[in-house]
Design the sequence.
């Protein structure tokens, strides 16, 4: 993130590890897991770069929760341009997990979208 962020950066994540890893990224950076990120938006704060980290959570049985999170992402990125998408991680067992769970999982673990 630090190599691609210009100025302040916001990270919205459906993965709990990403915000934890970025917890000491500095005061110009703010990251949150699902709706925890709303604390970063207090007082209408605006960020130069926005990163959205999204994984298998979009296959969640709690469709209302995921739809609400996707709306938050749409609101936060409104008026921004997506400048890059990066697949991160590979789950070699995705096909087996899909067969056992009945939930179609992608082999890519996370997708990271970068907005400016």
Sequence:
């Amino acid at each position: 993130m630090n190599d691609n962020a210009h100025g302040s950066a916001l990270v919205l994540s459906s993965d709990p590890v990403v915000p934890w890893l970025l917890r000491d990224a500095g005061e110009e950076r703010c990251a949150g897991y699902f709706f925890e990120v709303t604390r970063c938006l207090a007082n209408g704060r605006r960020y130069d770069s926005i990163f959205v980290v999204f994984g298998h959570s979009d296959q969640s049985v709690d469709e209302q929760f995921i739809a609400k999170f996707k709306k938050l992402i749409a609101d936060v990125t409104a008026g921004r341009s997506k400048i890059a998408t990066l697949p991160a991680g590979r789950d070699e067992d995705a096909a087996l997990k899909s067969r056992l769970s009945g939930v179609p999982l992608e082999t890519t673990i996370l997708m990271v979208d970068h907005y400016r």
Observations:
- The chain has a mean pLDDT of 87.
- The two ends are 13 Å apart (CA to CA).
- Residues 9-115 form one domain.
